[in-house]
Amino acid sequence: MSVSHSLQLRLFTPPPTAIPTHNHLPPPTLLLPRAAHRRFLSLRASFSPETLVSDNNGAPSPPPPSDPSSIEVDSVTEAELKENGFRSTRRTKLVCTVGPATCGFEQLEALAVGGMNVARINMCHGTREWHKEVIDRVRRLNHEKGFAVAIMMDTEGSEIHMGDLGGASSAKADDGEIWTFSVRAFDSALPQHTINVNYEGFAEDVKVGDELLVDGGMVRFEVIQKIGPDVKCRCTDPGLLLPRANLTFWRNGSLVRERNAMLPTISSKDWLDIDFGISEGVDFIAISFVKSAEVITHLKSYIAARSRDSDISVIAKIESIDSLKNLEEIILAADGAMVARGDLGAQIPLEQVPSAQQRIVEICRQLNKPVIVASQLLESMIEYPTPTRAEVADVSEAVRQRADALMLSGESAMGQYPEKALTVLRSVSLRIEKWWREEKRYEAMLLPSVGSYFSEKISEEICNSAAKMANNLEVDALFVYTKTGHMASLLSRCRPDCPIFAFTTTPSVRRRLNLQWGLIPFRLSFTDDMESNLNRTFSLLKARNLIKSGDLVVAVSDMLQSIQVMNVP
Ligand SMILES: Nc1ncnc2c1ncn2[C@@H]1O[C@H](COP(=O)(O)OP(=O)(O)OP(=O)(O)O)[C@@H](O)[C@H]1O
Ligand SMILES: CC(=O)C(=O)O
Ligand SMILES: [K+]
Ligand SMILES: [Mg+2]
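That's the Pyruvate kinase sequence above. Prediction below.
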């Protein structure tokens, strides 16, 4: 088999008659037939000369269908593009945890309209039937209203957590109060000031004098007495106890984890949930409390064997000391990562969380994996309609670090102002992104080569060059034609100034691209003939008023490894 790669750099200038020339291109001087105006500079790396990619004058391409509906993009993006143009589209993606406050069809639709790119369901809470209904509603929303909201299933993991408070939505623990934490299964209602704990070994593992942290320290207790399965604790830091909040215990200032470190990352209940996720065709599975790369590799091969066609991306949640120790290899094995600051902040000192976040975001970018910054971004908005200034600063910092996505947890799952919280994420993202572009704050981040094969390295070089060209020429958009989504993610990694229109053939790839920075995923059927793909895309997008004549575009594709620069005819 012959191997051929071509890196083509084309400068396509349309005839001057009908088409306004972009101010970065010199006006053409002669009126010639169309083909003669295609000035191209081509730089080719090829292993076999006879397979050099031609100038697309080979096989005739099928005529472009005239039906404009054969390109799919979500209605919110479409409206945004029409109203404000390319420059103002949001680049940072938004994930919303769906809970009792947002599980209805209209509520989900309001989130989608507000910019939700990914809906997260947390298997810690609710029944499988409940989750199935949410998945069905999101699917219906996509189907009926043209959204491409992806679904992320988050596993429970083998953490130690409280029971469900006997149906109460929360309970207040006051300073000095004595509460009982028990592994007993209570048949009837819970006695007052009693908390059920899910971990059998709890009473054996804790010692009198240990500090017990609820929800990473939102509420604290001191262990004062052990009576069989019951552990009596005195509240030292008062606060609100939420159903199934997680529990950690500390001894002499450090986390005790000898025993729960032996618990599997994926519990037997998690495997059932994963089977459920696979059969429902979720787009992402996020694995809680990942300790090593092996568990990710293991899960990925399990998914591959179970679901031949539906690719599910595996997101490693970084929320434990072990995951920080094995960070590079975990991220390398996974398809993406989440900075799960809630639990992370319970496992390492709080003041170390910001630097851990920065490191995780940076490594993900270098290894070309999408990264989500999660937890407490707008925590006060669970109760109040406006965020604190500190929360806005925290969101800004994550956007400034150029994370792929931000996530709402309780704010959207059970808060009073889910849509308002989403609006805050959206407007802060837009503002910080704009500021970044205006200030031309290009970071001096070296993007190492991530591919193992020569053809992958070529793709990387093409994307790096295309992104640089797009910035230097101040083009309106990058176009990428990608079957697997890989070229799109390589462009996203460069964090270019302009939006990236990612054309892909399958709905599931389109949904998964929705997690990545700066990508506007479109579904479009295309061929190996780039000339015909481009012409077809131009006419379809023009018919929907999404682009106009004269817009300057840089296009790359993973079928024909090329870079083309052109004005929309
Ligand atoms: N499906 C659900 N049903 C009921 N309550 C939910 C559901 N999903 C989330 N919640 C509520 O929203 C809160 C925040 O949601 P989130 O999923 O971020 O919580 P978490 O338990 O802190 O996360 P994790 O367990 O992954 O660390 C939860 O503590 C819970 O009270
Ligand atoms: C999201 C999550 O699991 C955490 O912050 O702990
Ligand atoms: K979880
Ligand atoms: Mg967690």
